[in-house]
Design goal:
The chain has 3 helices and 6 strands. With about 110 residues, it is an alpha+beta fold. A 4-stranded mixed β-sheet has the order 4-1-5-6, with helices on one face. A two-stranded antiparallel ribbon has the order 2-3. A hairpin with a 2-residue loop joins strand 2 and strand 3. InterPro entries: Thioredoxin-like_sf. This is Ferredoxin.
Length: about 110
């Protein structure tokens, strides 16, 4: 049976060039952010409703503001995310459905 996803989070993890991971989001800790999301989602029993995916560069003009992420289905873009922001995103956005204004992309 297919699970019904409530949220799909796409987190930029840079790009690969000659099989080497690079890019602004990668260099600013995207791997750690993804790992923290995975741990908290498991901790809070949200794995059936939240899917976290690593992706390449969004190339949408906000690259230098990374790490960047988008949460669907709302299409909310957050920039400059740090590992310290992940718990707040889980608590405020995923659990309560509220947007975190200070992280919104311009």
């Amino acid at each position: 049976m297919r699970r019904k996803i409530k949220y799909h989070i796409l987190i930029c993890n840079g790009t690969k060039c000659n099989k080497v991971q690079q890019g602004v989001c990668y260099k600013k800790g995207a791997e750690d952010i993804i790992s923290k999301f995975d741990k908290l989602i498991a901790k809070y029993g949200m794995a059936d409703e939240v899917l976290v995916s690593s992706c390449g560069c969004f190339r949408n003009g906000i690259t230098n503001k990374g790490p960047n992420m988008v949460i669907y289905p709302e299409g909310i873009w957050y920039s400059g995310v740090t590992v310290n922001d992940v718990e707040e995103i889980v608590e405020v956005h995923l659990k309560k459905g509220n947007i975190i204004e200070r992280l919104l992309s311009d």
